[in-house]
Amino acid sequence: MKRLINLTPSRGGRWLLGLLPFLLLAMLYISLSNARLAENPNDRLLPTPANMASTFYHLATAENARTGQIVLWADTFASLERIVIGVGISAFIGLIIGIVSGGLPILRAKLSPLVTVASLIPPMAILPILFIAFGTGEAAKIALIVIGVTPFLIRDLQGHALRLPDEQLIKAQTLGASSWQVLLRVLLPQLTPRLLNATRLALGTAWLFLIAAEAIAAQEGLGYRIFLVRRYLSMDIILPYVAWITLLAFLLDQLLAWVSRLAFPWYHSGEGDNA
Amino acid sequence: MKRLINLTPSRGGRWLLGLLPFLLLAMLYISLSNARLAENPNDRLLPTPANMASTFYHLATAENARTGQIVLWADTFASLERIVIGVGISAFIGLIIGIVSGGLPILRAKLSPLVTVASLIPPMAILPILFIAFGTGEAAKIALIVIGVTPFLIRDLQGHALRLPDEQLIKAQTLGASSWQVLLRVLLPQLTPRLLNATRLALGTAWLFLIAAEAIAAQEGLGYRIFLVRRYLSMDIILPYVAWITLLAFLLDQLLAWVSRLAFPWYHSGEGDNA
Amino acid sequence: MSLLAAKRLEKHYGNHVVLENLNFSVEPGEFVTLVGASGCGKTTFLKMLLGTEAISKGSLTLDDQPIPNEPGPDRGVVFQKYSVFPHLTVLGNVMMADELHSSKLLGKSFGAAKRRAIEKAHARIDEVGLDQALDKYPHELSGGMQQRLAIAQALMMRPRMLLLDEPFGALDPGIRQDMHVLINRLWQEQQLTIFMITHDLKEAFELGTRLWVFDKTRHDPQAPEAYGATITYDLPISRDRPSEALKEKLQQGGLQTHTQETLL
Amino acid sequence: MSLLAAKRLEKHYGNHVVLENLNFSVEPGEFVTLVGASGCGKTTFLKMLLGTEAISKGSLTLDDQPIPNEPGPDRGVVFQKYSVFPHLTVLGNVMMADELHSSKLLGKSFGAAKRRAIEKAHARIDEVGLDQALDKYPHELSGGMQQRLAIAQALMMRPRMLLLDEPFGALDPGIRQDMHVLINRLWQEQQLTIFMITHDLKEAFELGTRLWVFDKTRHDPQAPEAYGATITYDLPISRDRPSEALKEKLQQGGLQTHTQETLL
Amino acid sequence: TPAQAQERDEFSVCWSIYAGWMPWAYADVEGVVDKWADEYGISIDVVQVNDYVQSINQFTSGNVDGCAMTNMDALTIPAASGVDSTALIVGDYSNGNDGIVLKGSDDLADIEGREVNLVQFSVSHYFLARALESVGLTERDIETVNTSDADIVGLFSSDTTEAVVTWNPQLNAIAEMPEGNVVYTSAEIPGEILDMMVVNTDTLAANPELGHALVGAWYEVMELIEADDEQALSIMADAAGTDLEGYRAQLDATYMYTDPAEAIELMQSPELLDTMERVAEFSFEHGLLGDMAPNASVVGIETPSGVFGDESNVQLRFDPSFTQAYLDAE
Ligand SMILES: Nc1ncnc2c1ncn2[C@@H]1O[C@H](COP(=O)(O)OP(=O)(O)OP(=O)(O)O)[C@@H](O)[C@H]1O
Ligand SMILES: Nc1ncnc2c1ncn2[C@@H]1O[C@H](COP(=O)(O)OP(=O)(O)OP(=O)(O)O)[C@@H](O)[C@H]1O
Ligand SMILES: [Mg+2]
Ligand SMILES: [Mg+2]
């Protein structure tokens, strides 16, 4: 018998093992749900899977009488638009400031303390201020995402710019590069894949802020719907929505990972499979 | 004249340069505030610094008539207690599961997909379930922090456990170590400083969830106060509170960094000054 | 009875044949040096001796028993890097083996047991000349000192076999020479059986009593992974004979191809 | 008129004197090899030549002008590591210099300019024998191939001086030998002036026309940072003379201390 | 503010989800507001804000010109912040829409010593104070926990929750739960919790068309409600996240002033002034009029029947003239 640390599951077994805890959770849910519903058939907290499925199917297919739209898709589209624009703006700002402040010591001295302080402010605390400053339109929601995510991206990219070996900056200069050319041809291309990576890490936070923002001021969106029906404790809508958000987050994450591997093979050369 | 990328500010100049953007922001605020107050002396949106200072002083010194406590300290103590307990529990769970799933391939196969999915679920969206499971008191607030932070810690520690050179695990076994001893004497001590580091990264998220939790149901706490007085647009309380939270976050972060450097000098050997 | 013996030993990764048709027997006390082109399977071979890679076909026996399928205290190892624990001091690294042995639960000893462990460790550390650096962490040591530490640590369990994978590959030439003296002395004093991989032919000749050259004997340009490497030369090295002569003989044989490959 | 000259040159970091009292003049076409104990200031010296470290006292002149205070295309450099750009292919790395020159704004050339750059790069790549690996990224190359690439890249600007900081330190002995042949050929063909730091005395003798030994002449045990290293030996090396003889002479002199230090 | 006092032809008003304000949802999507705005040559943007407090903040900070809010919030937030506000439309009063729910008891007096979840310092708080008064208790006899209104239903399911004060639709959802006992509702204090459309006084003075257009649109929808128009009610129900049946249940607990004459009568009655005085006193006791407020009458409140408080600092006005003009035009 091998030591425990040396035991590795086979490839097929790994899949099955991975499914195991999900099955256990599902069983736990169903038994709890049954128990509550047996006590009070009108209980809304833990609806049956069948109930959730039919509600979700309805949301995903039936046109809304008032707006003429299909609720799920309208919500999804609105939320995705916000998160893509918000994260896109953050990534852009993060890349520019990260490169410039990572590459130019004189600017870094100016910006670093500000970025550090900004990244420490919990955006949730300034949520009330944000909506007052930006109104309740799309701008405020996107601004919340940008404010929540950008300081992290800037710090991450600045850190990586600083960690680029000095040797490369010197080499570029011995090849005749100007400051601008060093930023453009050494820092920019090497930080772009890192940006994709950092963006993946920041996506979780971005979803959080999106949902928080939609809870306060929105007329459609995944977070809006959850907070609207929360007043009625409609868990048959909330739970499928949570699952749907989780799936979207996962797909977005995988999309970015795939793009990065495709576009920057050299960046991923040192990686093993990270489980 | 040197190239821009080669210009570095002197040590003293660096401090001054770092202060510059803060001064600019302060001036911008004061001029905006003056403009609004000139129009409406009762305006609460951008109070004068003097006003904020006196309110803050009042909160920090005057006893509340009803509870006999000093508001600021009661809030601070309540919030710090929650965040320390919450992050402490997360760190503990993260360390255990991180080590075990990073070190034992057979367990990793079981846990990894679950942790990945769990880390993608926005905790804010499943609040009602949290209330049922943990009640509405301190437990729920701490649970929200734990749920928000733990998946990140687990993934980070698992990743680092995987990145430990195989050579070390093999070496330990050639020295006669059992699986348990490998976990205890190779993984645990090497992951502990990493845990401190990951906890520092996770603190931002923890503050976020703390404030969110306090916004939902609380009787005291920094987030509670902000969300209570936002009703009255009392920026003279909100803004100093945000600054105070930022300061606390900074101090907590530095404390962890200091402990880590003191306790694990070998871990920090490879570091330069990270600006 | 030979210590280690292989019969028609093979190692595949899927369809990729890395090693094939290995046959040898090694007596206790031999010092085998392994050379061969990069990627030909030397490390894979060492891993089979360690027990971290399973054998695919044939047999590999230690004391006439199939080799254990995981690392154990009878086979010490020193890698090119990461052999020592960064979170332990020199003393802590060397004591580790003893502590693991005497305290199954905590892997850490206290009181009298600890004093004994320290004493034993001291002796080992003296042997490799690190007595001035007892309380230093590995990151405070130079590359050469780290490798000495790794050797002292590996020898703490008094293993029967010592496996070295390019242990001096990352060291400066001067320091390297120093390490040769050390390993040679330890080998003789402790009557170890040593397997050492190296890229430096000179090193291989200076240290070993037996040289193995790993190379492919068959090659299919259409399917480069279809055939694996094997031991193409198995030469006894005499300490008395000047290595230069041997080297020339080798080059007349087939080692040119090998050297050329190594140099790309 | 000498290419490079120093007069009472010193370098301090705060109170720490790293180098002091350097006096020399170097003619175009010399191949200077620098040896010395670890941490004695060889890299610091090279950085002053590069312009990334300012001089503290004295003078250092290039063509009788104070040396520029930042790197420029007249002084090429190859480090032990990180000399090539990981995000560019072999061709891209070598073309870089030309592109930076011909397109100030984008640092990237297109059309005819690009074709010309490719052509020029091809020639350089052929010289170092990487013509089979044009479209590979550095991570797909072995250590030796990466250093060849770094050299090809550095020579693209036809610099007057080439600065090498332990360029072959991380390579295997066999590959190292190969690189010696290459660098020697390029030095002769392109009439470069080369400064090369090495830890390998043999290498220093094989390649250089002039050997500098850096060492401290004064030492204060109370304040080890009070005195800096200087050039203690400045020896011409003749290609015809067997290096062995020289080496012995050196060892009789003061190099023993140095070697001992290197070996800790 | 002067900027708002200028003549303009573009305005915005906001509202949040509440039974008595759902007509704005209908008026917005069905183009009723646009129709009336066109008639007066202006345009009005109707904005839904998900979070009630945030919608009032939008009004106070001047981002919008009008906002749907209760009488108490109009006094303690915009008026106390120095924004001169006019209650243009009094749409309804809560007639059971606010309620106190206890677990394990149907006697209000049992609230003594419990933790009560509610939105602190909102009308719920005022309502709770009135309820406590009715059984001879004071706020010192209980403990209040500030709770976000959207989460109060989920919270009630938790075993640790003992009592909540909330409004519809949350109130209905909680009342349906087996352990929920509604022990006191706003039906016991009719006419005290008023839901209104509040607009900036200066803006209204400079642009009376805004007032006329809003009033016109409002009462056009009121006619549909009076007629129990199923299609209109369904649309409102959907916007509120419920169905027709659920929305009707909420309306049952809301006294809608579908008849403009009745609304005018309320505004002119001296009882309104009494109610506002009580609200002002409650607000002062809880520090809602500002830390520096010397007494409850620091903010002047003007109704057709008189002024309460500081006449030189009137910041909240009840103005029936626009409703009157609509009635006259009919
Ligand atoms: N886990 C693995 N899965 C698949 N192939 C592997 C694995 N490990 C090694 N190989 C392959 O086996 C071959 C031999 O690798 P090995 O590391 O033993 O070579 P080596 O002789 O030690 O080379 P080097 O001199 O570079 O250290 C290589 O072609 C490698 O790609
Ligand atoms: N930026 C710096 N600030 C302060 N001290 C420095 C700095 N750079 C180098 N030193 C010190 O200068 C001395 C010389 O360092 P240098 O890197 O030049 O040595 P070296 O001869 O190249 O050593 P090695 O052979 O290990 O490469 C060292 O003691 C080092 O600590
Ligand atoms: Mg190998
Ligand atoms: Mg150096």
Automatic annotation (TrEMBL), chains C, D:
Q: Name one GO molecular function term.
A: ATP binding
Q: Which UniProt keywords apply?
A: Acyltransferase, ATP-binding, Cell membrane, Membrane, Nucleotide-binding, Transferase, Translocase, Transport
Q: Which Gene3D superfamilies match?
A: P-loop containing nucleotide triphosphate hydrolases
Q: Where is the ABC transporter domain?
A: 4-241
Has UniProt tagged this entry with the keyword Nucleotide-binding? Answer: yes
Keyword Amino-acid biosynthesis set for record:
no
The UniProt similarity line reads:
Belongs to the ABC transporter superfamily.
Q: What is this protein called?
A: Lauroyl acyltransferase
